[in-house]
Give the backbone structure.
Amino acid sequence: MFYPYVELADGTMIAHSETKSSEEGKSVEVQFERPRDEGGFYSARCELPSYKWIFNEYFSDNDLAFFEEFLEHNAHTLFKYAECGGIQIA
């Protein structure tokens, strides 16, 4: 399950998974999606804390570089929200 995190000014939606545990430790997957003019979505997913891109469809290298910088500034918050089941707003 993915939880909404933030929408960027260009319409890119960012969501995160719950915390996953493995022998290597805890991880969180972060999903990036933006509607395409041609239909469908730009879509990419990155795993934290390794910053490994699991897949990418249509995002440019510049987009991915921007997302990596975004993740560097937000990883601690994404882990926090992943631990408690997403941002609790109400």
In short: DSSP finds one helix and six strands in the chain.
